[in-house]
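## tool: complex_structure
## caller: assistant
## args:
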Amino acid sequence: MPLVRISLMQGKPASYRAAIGAAVHKAMVETINVPPLDHFQVITEHPRSDIIYDPAYLDIKRTDDVVFIQITLNGGRTTEMKRALYKRLVELLVAEPGIRPEDVLINLVEVGKENWSFGNGIASYAQ
Amino acid sequence: MPLVRISLMQGKPASYRAAIGAAVHKAMVETINVPPLDHFQVITEHPRSDIIYDPAYLDIKRTDDVVFIQITLNGGRTTEMKRALYKRLVELLVAEPGIRPEDVLINLVEVGKENWSFGNGIASYAQ
Amino acid sequence: MPLVRISLMQGKPASYRAAIGAAVHKAMVETINVPPLDHFQVITEHPRSDIIYDPAYLDIKRTDDVVFIQITLNGGRTTEMKRALYKRLVELLVAEPGIRPEDVLINLVEVGKENWSFGNGIASYAQ
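## result:
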């Protein structure tokens, strides 16, 4: 059910981008009860000019390796679950493909269960 | 008022992408009271490596022709209206450009009426 | 905290795109209390075929210079603040890079404070 958009600067190999996608998915499965097969993502590369970030907001030092991860998912996770997600996702990205913790920006957009169709024109999660 | 993002793998002709956009719009007009002229969409093509989907989540068999359709719209539609949208949208996509029902993923993101400006710096729908 | 997605047709120079990004940020700082360093945006260019807009919806005459600005931000701004944002953003875009007021589409997506991590795997705004 999450639909994930991952945005980063162009120039990394496909394996690097794939590792980001895998980390996002693994962190969601481990921390916020996302089903293991529920894996849907769009990764986009952008020119240097077209990803704009502040290099020091909240006293966090960012570089051009910044990654924006925007996750649309069902509402209802607690703040503690979200905290666990952020922490685990950064741990995994540090390990592989090797991203600085400071360079990971995460945003969640919550929607209702009836707001998804995963194929066949059915409201997959509606009661 | 809907702002639609359509993501698919690269390699299809522009006419194929246009048919997807037209189907999404027609389905919304028919099922959830979207005005016929209220037509705003961004379609993006992506390399094979950068659209990630599970080929069998919820026992639905997906292929590389998978299309992700994310619609930001005003809240307030009933679940029945959303069901009708999903069903009609898939019917239309099967007819033209010819997409398998299993390959259509739809997600709705709902916002408030005051969250739109359609030009001239005016809150188009706010009271 | 806003994460901004700006979509326009391809063919404008990078300086034009940068001016749009700067205007969006300045308008948010001036009207809705966004911190000056809180600046995170993704700008994307698209072929003519892949940005779809109605040229007359709500009797507003749009051209191929249309720009879609989608802002994900914390909920809680009043409608008056949103009105001020739309108005100021259009004023700034008219001045630089020189966009017609009719060509500016703005959409806000509101989320909870706990839905952000700006680095280090921390929920930056959660209590």
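## assistant note: The radius of gyration of chain B is 15 Å. The interface with chain C takes residues 3, 14, 17-18, 21, 35, 37-45, 72, 109, 111-112, 114-124, 126-127 of chain B (CB under 8 Å). Handing back to user.
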